[in-house]
Amino acid sequence: MVIPNIVVTNNTGTSDTSNIGKRSVPRLIPMHDSPIRRRKRMVPKATQVATSREQFLKTVNVKIATETDKRKKRLVPRNRPVVKRQKFKSRSKRNVDHDLYRDNLQAFDEQAYDRMIKLFRHIDNVTSSNCRGFKAEDLELPGSVANGVEEKFETQARTALRLSHFLSNFLQNKIETVGNLKADKRLHVNQMFGEVISNVMGDSRMRGCGIFFDQDKFINRDGSQREFFGPYAWRSDDGTYSAADYAGEPMSNNYRQRTWFKRLKQRWVTTGTYGLDRYTMNSFIKSDRFGTSQRKYQQYPMFYSAPSYEDGRWIGPYFDCEGYAKDWIVTYSVPFFGLNILGAQVEFKGVVIVDLRLKDLDINQCPGLFYEPNYFKGTARCHYESTYCIPTPGMLDQKFQIGNYNCECKQGYEYPFLRNAWFFDGKFMEQEYRKQQNGEFSRYSTLKCRIAAARASSIHVRWSVLAGAFFIMNWLR
Fold it and tell me: What is the pTM of this model?
């Protein structure tokens, strides 16, 4: 390849032949097209001696940021201050627990509503006088009818749990006589009746309470052994309290054949006491008969094994036709334990139960999640395009009834009538819907919230009319 001789003229007009025969073609490229020139303009004079790319980047303290499309390159200084994005606080929303179905316009379930109406008719038809004429399956309701019973009746269930802990502690610890102080004796029949009666009289929601010993597990204070013993107390509809022993019932109605007894016995007899909680108790006794001082029991701490609240079982709802309650009830049963005959091992001794009226339970007709076992969900008659459903607890005599909910207006909607309210009462909604189903005059179609902007528009129109009238009056003057 032959390199042509190129003569470069200086500013003085003389020719410069020092570069003749050298590769000086890049010098003829314009300055703005040369990447080297462009790079030199950004480099300080003290760093222009950098030749390699790595030294150049290290000297100038810059970095090359490549964009995602890898088409455009730019130099970004490393010491560039990072501007943090300002965080804005989000607006507070209304505290609504049922926002999962606000936008669900098909929340009402027509089939569930018809099924609910049939259920209430069946509950009203079964009474204590005609319950023996129904089949056994007709006296039982689906378990989803008693949805939420674990939380709403927890106080009453823990009353049975407290009695179970008392019996377990008493039957597992042998307190002997110490000095002049005599130890307590065995459990007494009257003591057991007193426990169940006091529980029923102390809680108005409790329909009945009972202690049921397993076969040959109750030993009286005099040392006699009873084959069956089941003291039970209940409250009648007229407010009177009664008590009886289930052992006097015939074997066909023996409490050992009841569901709440068989399930717990099968659970704890087959597996033993595995899963029970162990409790420690440091008891105090008087140092002498006059009670001048106190000291802890010599053989403390005292231990006993007892169940927890989760170890109990909820049974029902069902109609107690063979028992003493004679009503639709749900039953909570929990076991209690004691030492065996040898006194070396803890064994199953019996069951404590509490019966609660189904009519004292609140129902929830609002829409819920698909896996929630609620028999009444999706039966509220709200207009879900403009309102959402909120369950409300009923009064003492209006617990297990239809209509215990409110249809509150959504955000952006307002109550349409001249009333200081923001919701429609559920009982009124059910009443108007029932009239509409029967072909009577009903206002059910108007029981929905309106868009809130309608009020603002009407006010704006009124002010516009008043302003126009005022302008015309001034012009006429």
Answer: 0.69
Rounded alpha-carbon distances, angstroms, from residue 315 to 170, 218, 280, 320? 27, 25, 31, 12
Retrieve residue 15's tokens: 């020719």
Give the bridge partners for 104, in sequence order: none
In the predicted model, what is the mean pLDDT of residues 425-451?
A: 89
Q: Tell me the C-alpha distance between 445 and 381, whole Å.
A: 11
Of 327, 326, 315, 351, the closest CA to residue 196 belongs to 351
Name the nearest CA neighbour of 167 among 269, 9, 306.
306
Q: State the virtual CA torsion across 266, 263, 197, 396 in degrees, nearest 10.
A: 160
CB 357 within 8 A of CB 236: no
Q: How far apart are CA 65 and CA 72, in angstroms?
A: 9
Nearest Cα neighbor of 351 from 265, 278, 286 is 265
Q: Which residues pair with 284 in a beta bridge?
A: 296
Residue-wise pLDDT for 231-263, tens only, equals 999 998 888 999 999 887 776 668 888 889 999
Residue 202 CA neighbour count, 13 Å, CB half: 12
